[in-house]
Amino acid sequence: MSATPDYYKTLGVPRTATADEIKKAFRKLARTHHPDAGGDEAKFKEINEAYEVLSDDKKRKLYDQYGTANENQIPQGWGGGSVNVGDIFGGGAGGFGSWADILESIRRGEGAFGTEWDFGGSGFGGARQPRPRKGQDMNVTLNVTFDEAFKGAEKRVTVRVPGRGESETLTVKIPAGAVDGGRLRFKGKGGPGDNGGAAGDLLITTKVEEHPHYRRKGADVLMDVPVSVAEAALGASVVVPAPDGTKVRVKVPVGTQDGTVLTVRGKGAPKVKGEGSGDLRITVKVVVPKQMNDGQRKAMEDYLAATDENVRSWER
Questions:
Q1: Among 27, 13, 26, 137, which residue's Cα sits nearest to residue 64?
Q2: Which residue in 143, 149, 131 sits closest to 62, CA to CA?
Q3: Chain segment 254-304, per-residue pLDDT in tens
Q4: Distance between CA 71 and CA 53 in Å, rounded?
Q5: CA angle, residues 216, 217, 220, in degrees to nearest 5
């Protein structure tokens, strides 16, 4: 039996590579070594063989465990009793191939027989020990108010992890400036591992409830501020409640148009990463009166009579 190539080395990826990383590595190498692009055909075949094994979950597991994806080459339990050393090392059916194969396995760090075996007991009668596997991660959504996300808070969360007998109550510290969809990780609080493997993690995703006045865009806080037609035309000074509980005075310039954005620096949410706070961004909403009293109507008529401005460009 010829030595199995190191498929991870062929593709230039670590043994912990994800499926996407393996695919990207294969595509990059395939473009370089494809015969149609002037590449070496033998090299391309090696790359393709490696990708066929590592992109298939079943084949990859066999390869990682036994050093080969060929089920016919996987060593079986040897049972008790006498052992023909020539069968083991001579490459016969059920054996481990040539000395070259054994040395190749040692080079790959897999042991002389390409995998781990328990040689306890009589002869070579032991069985391969199962590998430890990390437990599954668990995802939980935590609802928080706008103020809790803005200022930070502590919440108590009770979770019941599958595979564990009892529920567990955790204290979750919501950082000031937390955003909708932010994630907190509790290591080792997920599903239990198998065969002595580490437990998975508990991932808590924050869901920020809507606020009647404010919206978030990262650390910036957005809000709409209504102004009258007269305030927009003549200019005004408007007092606005900031999300931190203070009040700020905002100057509306003369001739402000509907949809104009005014910025108050540093009055947004605290930045979770980094220092300082975001900004309070105010969108001006010009409110046109739906009903007017006699005085308002007379004033508007006088304004219309006193101006020759045409706001419609196609009529100019």
A1: 13
A2: 131
A3: 999 999 999 999 999 999 988 899 999 999 999 999 999 999 999 999 988
A4: 12
A5: 80
Question: End-to-end distance of the chain based on CA atoms, in angstroms?
Answer: 89
Residue type, 120: G
Q: Tell the burial category of 192 from Cβ atoms under 10 Å away from its Cβ (0-12, 13-18, 19+).
A: middle
Rg (CA), the chain: 35
Measured CA to CA, the distance from residue 132 to residue 198 in angstroms comes to 8
Q: Would you call 172 helix, strand, or coil by DSSP?
A: strand
How far is C-alpha 141 from the chain's CA centre?
Answer: 15
Provide the 10 A C-beta neighbour count for residue 109.
7
Q: Which residue from 159, 216, 219, 208 is spatially nearest to 183, judged by alpha carbons? A: 208
Cβ contact 89:113 at 8 Å? no
Cβ distance 52 to 39 under 8 Å? no
Contacts 24+ apart (CB under 8 A), 63-67: 63/4, 63/7, 64/15, 65/115, 65/131, 66/114, 66/115, 67/4, 67/105, 67/108, 67/110, 67/114, 67/115
Angle at 232 between CA 230 and CA 235, to 5 degrees: 90
Q: How far apart are CA 37 and CA 30, in angstroms?
A: 9
Nearest to 142 by CA among 201, 176, 175, 183: 183
pLDDT tens, residue by residue, 152-195: 999 998 888 777 777 889 999 999 999 999 999 999 888 888 88
Closest CA to 209 of 277, 259, 149: 149
In angstroms, rounded to a whole number, what is the distance separating the alpha carbons of residues 128 and 74? 12
How remote is the C-alpha of 115 from its chain's centroid? 34
Dihedral-angle region of residue 259 (phi above 0 means left; psi in -120 to 50 means alpha; beta otherwise): left
Pairing of strands 153-159, 168-174: antiparallel
| Predicted structure pTM score | 0.54
d(CA 188, CA 205): 17
- Are 233 and 303 in contact by the 8 Å Cβ rule? The answer is no
